[in-house]
Amino acid sequence: MLRDKSLQFAKNRVVFAFGGNLESSIGSVDDTIVSAIDTLVSLGSHVVARSRFYETPCFPAGAGPDYINLVAVVDTPHSPDDLLTQLHEVEVKFGRARQVRWAGRTLDIDILSYENRIFPDLDTYNHWKDLPVQAQMQNAPTGLILPHPRIQDRGFVLIPLCDVYPDWIHPVSGKTAQMLCDALPISETQGIKPL
């Protein structure tokens, strides 16, 4: 577990969320996530810490098998845009098809935070953070938004994030991952369990 607050300012410190609910060509969702992490390491990133695997109820309810989620803290030499391109390539390698928003998937990798930057700017971040759920289901940003605009809303992200980096500070709200997790409504945390 990361406890040294100075670590949040380390060069190219990135927090990733991994998830999936469909088997890939290499096997189970957890095998796919481990292989995706190994691929990122082979491309020059270094895993500093990773959470346990968590099982998360599928959203929307009944839309498919439950998800497996994990959060990893990584040091990387790559820029945010290069890293996003790399992640999309890794997702495709493991069978990710981007046809329907929030559909079942073999692998999903999100950049939650990159050096605690706000990117591309605060107005763009706030637009996506404040987007109603129905609009979120139909629209996806065309570029990278940092921090991830849904971190504070998602138990399946905050619970594993607190496994490895409870002192991570949200660059907009100023709240730690643990504070954000503790503020979640029970509807966002129930059914999420470690594997």
TrEMBL record:
Descriptive protein name: 2-amino-4-hydroxy-6-hydroxymethyldihydropteridine pyrophosphokinase
Matching CDD domains: HPPK (cd00483)
A Pfam family reported for this protein in Swiss-Prot or TrEMBL: HPPK
Gene source species: Pacificibacter marinus
Alphabetic keyword roster: ATP-binding, Folate biosynthesis, Kinase, Nucleotide-binding, Transferase
Domain 7,8-dihydro-6-hydroxymethylpterin-pyrophosphokinase span(s) in chain numbering: 17-166
Enzyme class per UniProt: transferase
GO molecular function (one): 2-amino-4-hydroxy-6-hydroxymethyldihydropteridine diphosphokinase activity
Family of the protein in this entry: Belongs to the HPPK family.
Upper taxonomic lineage: Bacteria, Pseudomonadati, Pseudomonadota, Alphaproteobacteria, Rhodobacterales
One record GO biological process: folic acid biosynthetic process
SUPFAM superfamilies in UniProt: 6-hydroxymethyl-7,8-dihydropterin pyrophosphokinase, HPPK
Known pathway: Cofactor biosynthesis; tetrahydrofolate biosynthesis; 2-amino-4-hydroxy-6-hydroxymethyl-7,8-dihydropteridine diphosphate from 7,8-dihydroneopterin triphosphate: step 4/4
EC code: 2.7.6.3
Record InterPro entries: Hppk, Hppk_sf
Spans through the membrane: none
